[in-house]
Amino acid sequence: MKIPASILFLSTVVTAQTVIESSSFGHGAIVAPSREGIPGWDLGGEGHFPQILSNKLILTPPYPGNTRGFAWAQSPVSEQEWAAEFQFRATGVERAGGNLQLWYAKDGMKNVGSASIYTVGQWDGFALVVDTHSGRGGSIRGFLNDGTTDYKSHRSVDSLAFGHCDYSYRNLGRPSVIRVKHTNVMFEVTVDDKPCFSTDKVSLPAGNTIGITAATPENPDSFEIFKVVLRTATSGVEKAPPAEKQNNNQQPLAASPQGGAQQGQAAPNDLSSINEQFADLGSRIQLINHATNNILREIGNQGNKLESKQADLLQKLATKEQVAALDARLQRLEQSVLSIQRDLEGKDYRDKFNQLQETLRSSHLSLTENIKDNLLSVITASTPRMGFFIFVIVAVQILLAGSYIVYKRRRANMPKKFL
User: Fold this and answer.
1) Among 312, 331, 350, where does a domain finish?
2) How far lies 308's CA from each of 99, 299, 311, 312, 418, in Å?
3) What domain range is 276 assigned to?
4) Which segments constitute the L-type lectin-like domain (predicted)?
5) pLDDT per residue as tens digits for the range 201-214
6) Could you give the residue ranges of the DSSP H alpha helices within 201-319?
7) Which tens digit of pLDDT belongs to each residue from 277-324?
8) Separation of alpha carbons 49 and 45, rounded Å
9) What CA–CA distance (Å, rounded) separates 352 from 33?
10) Domain-located, residue 391
11) pTM for the whole structure
């Protein structure tokens, strides 16, 4: 019996796209065999370590904010042509924010680490950024770098995007699916099976590593990663071989079994969708439990701090023995003051005060008389004699009168000139 041409075509397509296990996770039944880590991937973050659940990886939690998370494949991609499928979900409050990056970079763990497109330095490769830049509801943008541009110090990182599309990704209640395909003839990005952007001028070398980073502000978005699957790709789709004529001896397939098979597939599909909804509900409950545990832990820390402060205050306060000793000292001091007061009231100090007053009065009188006598003697001794002073005045006047008389006589005896 000959194999139908359609089956041969499907087998060639499946063969052409092989999953690269070292750069993928989430394509199986569970994300990781344990919560300790994902085989072949390096996980880490700042302010929070990524949490591994059965069906997803939480890069950034809903609480607290200002956190970062990253996941980097340990092995580089050796294929020149590849196709990546990326499923994520972002949930948060109304005005929350953050950014999510899918990287294909050279030495990504070393050169990028937990950085975002705005905080990374010089890197080499491709980055797909999901954020709400410029106040938009959401966008997906592509960035390239050859290792020469320092994005961290660039004045306008947004202007370096070579392709973008608008996409409101927050609080959709379902995972969003982004597919990136890189071949020798085309580079294209689709979102939820819809074209986002494409170009034939991008050619990425082999040897880079796949990675994911997320960063959130004070009002955070919780970025959850459900799947990162990297497959090999071909430049074009192989054409199906021409359909051969059906052998007359070959019996045609009955129509009723096919219809029965289609009806039989409907129930499993509905059951699988219900299971997916329950799994999503369980993951949300786990996320709420994690946030609740964080809040309870924070409350416990605050309670411990209050207890330590209370203990310090109690140490600084006086004990009962110290208060009793101080009370006894005050009582003794009060008794001493009362005894002194009683002694003063029992004795009469009026005579002593009168004697003191008389002593002060006599001292004052004697001091006043001595000062008066001494002052008079000083004035008398320093005053000049009046007779000598009068004699000097009379002598000066006589001298002046004689000089005037002599001057008059000389002037009268002088020869006179007549005109």
Assistant:
1) 331
2) 40, 14, 5, 6, 131
3) 270-331
4) 22-233
5) 999 999 999 999 99
6) 255-316
7) 777 787 778 778 777 877 888 898 888 888 888 888 877 776 777 888
8) 5
9) 107
10) no
11) 0.56
